[in-house]
Design goal:
By secondary structure, the chain is an all-alpha fold. It folds into two domains: about 90 residues, Fumarase/aspartase (C-terminal domain) (Ribonucleotide Reductase Protein R1, domain 1); about 45 residues. The protein is about 75% helix and about 0% strand. It is built from eight helices and no strands. α3 packs across α4. The longest helix has about 45 residues. It is elongated, with a radius of gyration of 27 Å.
């Protein structure tokens, strides 16, 4: 376990984050398509199951045609929506891009354990307080072990003297 923690520490210590590259990558991959399904539910009043089916086929279409998530538009959504349910979405291209935006997506999750900035800050503060408490307890235990070691050494010295 200690080796794993040391390896993790060395890995994290040397890591360089390129936030703009991370956002660009997230915009192009399909990590936010569940939110697109949520938008379809809200805008078109369909079940999440139906929205999920549409989005699954949209993703399949995009991958098959070597396209990225940020290239999804009403043309693709409507083609699949029409094929499955014989109607089109009321969403606009702007709505689709809003649904797929990874930054807006992260900031919108304001629930306990979510990814909104306030919630992440709350979680980090809680973890930091726990870490501080653990460090205090560790320091107390190390001091107790050192005191016991000193008493043991004194007893051994007295016994062999």
């Amino acid at each position: 376990m200690q080796a794993c923690i040391e390896l993790l520490s060395a890995t994290v210590k040397g890591i360089t984050l390129h936030k703009d590259r991370m956002v660009q990558t997230a915009r192009g991959n399909f990590c936010t398509v569940t939110e697109l399904a949520n938008y379809l539910v809200r805008h078109d009043g369909i079940s999440f199951r139906a929205a999920h089916e549409i989005v699954a086929l949209v993703v399949d279409y995009m991958i098959t045609h070597n396209k990225k998530a940020n290239e999804i538009g009403t043309d693709v959504v409507n083609e699949i929506f029409m094929k499955l349910f014989n109607k089109t979405t009321s969403m606009t291209d702007a709505d689709i891009q809003t649904a797929l935006d990874p930054v807006l997506n992260a900031h919108s999750k304001k629930v306990l354990g979510g990814t909104a900035e306030e919630e992440v800050s709350r979680q980090l503060a809680r973890r930091q307080a726990k870490l501080n408490k653990d460090n205090e307890e560790l320091a107390q235990r190390v001091a107790a072990v050192n005191q016991a070691k000193d008493r043991l050494e004194a007893a051994v010295s007295a016994a062999i003297a």
